[in-house]
Specification:
The protein has ten helices and ten strands. With 286 residues, it is an alpha/beta fold. Strands 3-4-5-6-7-8-9-10 form an eight-stranded parallel β-sheet. A two-stranded antiparallel ribbon has the order 1-2. The protein is globular. The mean pLDDT is 97.
Length: 286
Amino acid sequence: MAQQFSLTSRIKLANGSSMPRIHLGVYLTSGQETTNAVQCALEAGYRAFDSAQMYRNEAEVGSTILKFISSNSNTSTLKREDIHFTSKLASNSSYDSARRSIKKSVQQCGLGYIDLFLLHSPYGGQTARLASWKAVEDAIADGEVKTGGVSNYGMKHLQELLASKPRVFPAINQIEVHPFNTRTEITSFCQQHDIVVEAYAPLVRALRMKHPVIGSLAEKYSCTPAQLLIRWSLQHGYVPLPKSVTKDRIIQNGQISGFNIDAKDMEKMDGLDEYLVTDWDPVDAD
Protein backbone atom coordinates (compact mmCIF):
# COMPACT_ATOMS: atom_id res chain seq x y z
CA MET A 1 0.00 0.00 0.00
CA ALA A 2 1.36 3.41 -0.99
CA GLN A 3 2.55 5.66 1.83
CA GLN A 4 0.71 8.96 1.88
CA PHE A 5 2.78 12.09 2.46
CA SER A 6 1.88 15.76 2.24
CA LEU A 7 2.87 19.07 3.78
CA THR A 8 0.41 18.33 6.59
CA SER A 9 1.95 14.92 7.39
CA ARG A 10 3.63 14.66 10.79
CA ILE A 11 6.13 12.32 12.41
CA LYS A 12 6.11 11.22 16.04
CA LEU A 13 9.20 12.03 18.11
CA ALA A 14 10.67 10.09 21.02
CA ASN A 15 9.59 12.78 23.50
CA GLY A 16 5.95 12.24 22.58
CA SER A 17 5.55 15.35 20.43
CA SER A 18 5.35 15.43 16.64
CA MET A 19 6.57 17.65 13.83
CA PRO A 20 5.90 18.12 10.10
CA ARG A 21 7.48 15.63 7.68
CA ILE A 22 8.81 18.32 5.31
CA HIS A 23 10.62 21.52 6.36
CA LEU A 24 11.73 24.41 4.19
CA GLY A 25 15.47 24.93 4.44
CA VAL A 26 16.69 28.54 4.52
CA TYR A 27 20.45 27.92 4.41
CA LEU A 28 22.33 30.55 2.37
CA THR A 29 19.35 32.89 2.20
CA SER A 30 19.18 36.36 3.73
CA GLY A 31 17.08 39.49 4.04
CA GLN A 32 14.16 39.86 1.66
CA GLU A 33 15.06 36.59 -0.07
CA THR A 34 14.44 34.70 3.20
CA THR A 35 11.23 36.62 3.86
CA ASN A 36 9.88 35.89 0.37
CA ALA A 37 10.76 32.19 0.54
CA VAL A 38 9.10 31.71 3.95
CA GLN A 39 6.02 33.66 2.85
CA CYS A 40 5.69 31.59 -0.33
CA ALA A 41 6.15 28.38 1.64
CA LEU A 42 3.51 29.30 4.23
CA GLU A 43 1.05 30.15 1.46
CA ALA A 44 1.87 26.81 -0.21
CA GLY A 45 1.13 24.89 2.99
CA TYR A 46 4.56 24.39 4.57
CA ARG A 47 4.42 24.33 8.34
CA ALA A 48 8.09 23.94 9.29
CA PHE A 49 11.26 25.99 8.76
CA ASP A 50 14.88 25.08 9.35
CA SER A 51 17.13 27.97 10.37
CA ALA A 52 20.34 28.30 12.41
CA GLN A 53 22.44 30.88 14.19
CA MET A 54 25.06 30.52 11.46
CA TYR A 55 22.50 31.32 8.76
CA ARG A 56 21.89 34.76 10.27
CA ASN A 57 18.22 34.69 9.29
CA GLU A 58 16.41 33.62 12.47
CA ALA A 59 14.82 37.09 12.74
CA GLU A 60 13.55 37.09 9.14
CA VAL A 61 12.04 33.64 9.46
CA GLY A 62 10.38 34.44 12.79
CA SER A 63 8.97 37.81 11.77
CA THR A 64 7.58 36.39 8.50
CA ILE A 65 5.83 33.61 10.41
CA LEU A 66 4.27 36.08 12.86
CA LYS A 67 3.14 38.44 10.08
CA PHE A 68 1.59 35.54 8.17
CA ILE A 69 -0.30 34.31 11.24
CA SER A 70 -1.90 37.73 11.73
CA SER A 71 -2.59 38.34 8.01
CA ASN A 72 -5.50 37.64 5.69
CA SER A 73 -3.31 35.07 3.93
CA ASN A 74 -3.71 32.81 6.96
CA THR A 75 -6.85 31.17 5.61
CA SER A 76 -6.35 28.09 7.81
CA THR A 77 -6.38 30.25 10.97
CA LEU A 78 -2.99 28.91 12.00
CA LYS A 79 -1.59 29.77 15.42
CA ARG A 80 2.03 29.97 16.56
CA GLU A 81 1.90 26.39 17.83
CA ASP A 82 0.95 25.15 14.35
CA ILE A 83 4.28 26.33 12.91
CA HIS A 84 7.51 24.46 13.64
CA PHE A 85 10.72 26.51 13.88
CA THR A 86 14.22 25.03 14.13
CA SER A 87 17.48 26.74 15.01
CA LYS A 88 20.97 25.48 15.83
CA LEU A 89 23.88 26.37 18.10
CA ALA A 90 26.69 27.87 16.03
CA SER A 91 29.52 26.35 18.07
CA ASN A 92 30.01 24.13 21.10
CA SER A 93 32.01 25.67 23.93
CA SER A 94 31.07 26.18 27.58
CA TYR A 95 27.70 25.62 29.23
CA ASP A 96 27.26 29.35 29.98
CA SER A 97 28.10 30.37 26.43
CA ALA A 98 25.65 27.85 24.96
CA ARG A 99 22.91 28.84 27.40
CA ARG A 100 23.29 32.54 26.51
CA SER A 101 23.35 31.68 22.84
CA ILE A 102 20.08 29.76 23.04
CA LYS A 103 18.40 32.66 24.85
CA LYS A 104 19.62 34.99 22.10
CA SER A 105 18.12 32.76 19.40
CA VAL A 106 14.76 32.81 21.19
CA GLN A 107 14.94 36.62 21.21
CA GLN A 108 16.09 36.80 17.59
CA CYS A 109 13.26 34.71 16.17
CA GLY A 110 10.65 36.51 18.25
CA LEU A 111 8.42 33.44 18.38
CA GLY A 112 8.42 33.04 22.16
CA TYR A 113 10.10 29.63 22.03
CA ILE A 114 11.97 27.40 19.59
CA ASP A 115 10.32 24.13 18.59
CA LEU A 116 13.55 22.29 17.82
CA PHE A 117 17.05 23.33 18.83
CA LEU A 118 20.07 21.40 17.57
CA LEU A 119 23.78 21.36 18.27
CA HIS A 120 24.87 22.27 14.74
CA SER A 121 27.96 20.05 14.72
CA PRO A 122 30.14 17.86 16.93
CA TYR A 123 33.08 20.27 16.64
CA GLY A 124 34.70 21.49 19.86
CA GLY A 125 35.48 18.17 21.55
CA GLN A 126 33.70 15.94 24.05
CA THR A 127 33.64 18.36 26.99
CA ALA A 128 32.15 21.17 24.88
CA ARG A 129 29.62 18.85 23.25
CA LEU A 130 28.30 17.53 26.56
CA ALA A 131 28.28 20.98 28.20
CA SER A 132 26.34 22.40 25.25
CA TRP A 133 23.84 19.53 25.44
CA LYS A 134 23.29 20.30 29.14
CA ALA A 135 22.44 23.87 28.07
CA VAL A 136 19.86 22.47 25.65
CA GLU A 137 18.38 20.33 28.41
CA ASP A 138 18.05 23.36 30.69
CA ALA A 139 16.53 25.45 27.88
CA ILE A 140 13.89 22.72 27.50
CA ALA A 141 13.28 22.71 31.28
CA ASP A 142 12.85 26.49 31.18
CA GLY A 143 10.36 26.39 28.30
CA GLU A 144 12.59 28.15 25.77
CA VAL A 145 12.93 25.03 23.62
CA LYS A 146 10.42 22.22 23.05
CA THR A 147 12.67 19.52 21.58
CA GLY A 148 16.43 19.02 21.50
CA GLY A 149 18.58 17.30 18.91
CA VAL A 150 21.93 17.24 17.18
CA SER A 151 23.27 17.75 13.68
CA ASN A 152 26.19 16.27 11.75
CA TYR A 153 26.72 13.72 14.53
CA GLY A 154 28.48 10.50 13.57
CA MET A 155 28.04 7.19 15.36
CA LYS A 156 30.74 7.91 17.96
CA HIS A 157 29.19 11.28 18.85
CA LEU A 158 25.75 9.75 19.29
CA GLN A 159 27.17 6.89 21.37
CA GLU A 160 29.07 9.40 23.51
CA LEU A 161 25.91 11.44 24.19
CA LEU A 162 23.76 8.40 24.96
CA ALA A 163 26.47 6.96 27.24
CA SER A 164 26.55 10.21 29.25
CA LYS A 165 23.06 9.33 30.56
CA PRO A 166 21.51 12.67 29.59
CA ARG A 167 18.30 13.89 31.19
CA VAL A 168 16.95 14.48 27.68
CA PHE A 169 17.76 12.16 24.80
CA PRO A 170 18.33 13.68 21.35
CA ALA A 171 15.14 13.34 19.30
CA ILE A 172 16.78 14.31 15.99
CA ASN A 173 20.05 13.94 14.12
CA GLN A 174 20.15 16.25 11.11
CA ILE A 175 22.70 15.06 8.54
CA GLU A 176 23.33 15.23 4.82
CA VAL A 177 21.43 12.28 3.35
CA HIS A 178 20.37 11.58 -0.23
CA PRO A 179 20.78 8.70 -2.72
CA PHE A 180 24.33 9.82 -3.50
CA ASN A 181 25.30 9.77 0.20
CA THR A 182 23.10 7.29 2.04
CA ARG A 183 25.06 7.17 5.33
CA THR A 184 23.48 3.81 6.10
CA GLU A 185 25.48 3.16 9.28
CA ILE A 186 24.44 6.45 10.91
CA THR A 187 20.81 6.34 9.75
CA SER A 188 20.41 2.72 10.92
CA PHE A 189 21.85 3.60 14.34
CA CYS A 190 19.47 6.55 14.64
CA GLN A 191 16.43 4.49 13.72
CA GLN A 192 17.43 1.75 16.18
CA HIS A 193 17.61 4.36 18.95
CA ASP A 194 14.39 6.20 18.08
CA ILE A 195 16.27 9.24 16.77
CA VAL A 196 14.54 10.79 13.75
CA VAL A 197 16.87 11.55 10.83
CA GLU A 198 16.44 14.95 9.25
CA ALA A 199 17.93 15.00 5.76
CA TYR A 200 19.60 18.22 4.74
CA ALA A 201 20.64 18.77 1.12
CA PRO A 202 17.98 16.21 0.07
CA LEU A 203 18.14 17.66 -3.46
CA VAL A 204 21.92 17.10 -3.57
CA ARG A 205 22.24 20.88 -4.11
CA ALA A 206 21.16 20.23 -7.72
CA LEU A 207 24.44 18.45 -8.48
CA ARG A 208 22.79 15.23 -9.71
CA MET A 209 19.47 16.38 -11.17
CA LYS A 210 20.57 15.19 -14.63
CA HIS A 211 21.85 11.81 -13.48
CA PRO A 212 20.40 9.19 -15.88
CA VAL A 213 18.81 7.10 -13.12
CA ILE A 214 17.17 10.15 -11.53
CA GLY A 215 16.00 11.37 -14.95
CA SER A 216 14.53 8.05 -16.00
CA LEU A 217 12.72 7.48 -12.70
CA ALA A 218 11.36 11.04 -12.66
CA GLU A 219 9.95 10.34 -16.12
CA LYS A 220 8.54 6.99 -14.98
CA TYR A 221 6.72 8.56 -12.02
CA SER A 222 5.75 11.75 -13.89
CA CYS A 223 7.45 13.94 -11.33
CA THR A 224 10.37 16.35 -11.18
CA PRO A 225 13.81 15.06 -10.13
CA ALA A 226 13.44 17.13 -6.94
CA GLN A 227 10.09 15.53 -6.11
CA LEU A 228 11.63 12.10 -6.67
CA LEU A 229 14.50 12.85 -4.27
CA ILE A 230 12.16 14.23 -1.60
CA ARG A 231 9.92 11.19 -1.94
CA TRP A 232 12.94 8.85 -1.57
CA SER A 233 13.80 10.60 1.69
CA LEU A 234 10.26 10.36 3.04
CA GLN A 235 9.91 6.68 2.13
CA HIS A 236 13.09 5.95 4.10
CA GLY A 237 11.46 7.54 7.15
CA TYR A 238 13.53 10.72 7.05
CA VAL A 239 12.41 14.34 7.34
CA PRO A 240 13.73 16.17 4.25
CA LEU A 241 14.62 19.86 4.31
CA PRO A 242 14.36 20.98 0.66
CA LYS A 243 15.71 24.47 0.10
CA SER A 244 14.52 26.83 -2.62
CA VAL A 245 13.89 30.54 -2.98
CA THR A 246 11.84 30.14 -6.18
CA LYS A 247 8.06 30.19 -5.71
CA ASP A 248 7.27 27.54 -8.31
CA ARG A 249 9.90 25.15 -6.96
CA ILE A 250 8.85 25.70 -3.35
CA ILE A 251 5.32 24.72 -4.38
CA GLN A 252 6.46 21.75 -6.51
CA ASN A 253 8.69 20.39 -3.76
CA GLY A 254 5.67 20.04 -1.49
CA GLN A 255 3.61 18.17 -4.08
CA ILE A 256 4.82 14.64 -3.40
CA SER A 257 1.54 12.81 -2.70
CA GLY A 258 0.70 11.69 -6.25
CA PHE A 259 3.14 8.78 -6.55
CA ASN A 260 4.97 6.09 -4.59
CA ILE A 261 8.45 4.83 -5.51
CA ASP A 262 8.32 1.02 -5.68
CA ALA A 263 10.77 -1.15 -3.73
CA LYS A 264 12.98 -2.02 -6.71
CA ASP A 265 13.37 1.61 -7.67
CA MET A 266 14.15 2.57 -4.05
CA GLU A 267 16.94 -0.04 -4.17
CA LYS A 268 18.14 1.36 -7.48
CA MET A 269 18.32 4.84 -5.95
CA ASP A 270 20.07 3.48 -2.83
CA GLY A 271 22.68 1.99 -5.15
CA LEU A 272 23.71 5.46 -6.36
CA ASP A 273 25.69 6.05 -3.15
CA GLU A 274 29.10 7.59 -3.88
CA TYR A 275 29.61 9.36 -0.52
CA LEU A 276 29.00 12.67 -2.22
CA VAL A 277 29.43 15.49 0.30
CA THR A 278 27.98 18.78 -0.94
CA ASP A 279 29.08 21.00 1.94
CA TRP A 280 30.85 20.07 5.19
CA ASP A 281 31.29 16.64 6.74
CA PRO A 282 31.91 16.77 10.52
CA VAL A 283 30.66 13.23 11.29
CA ASP A 284 34.19 11.97 12.05
CA ALA A 285 35.33 15.00 14.08
CA ASP A 286 37.23 14.33 17.32
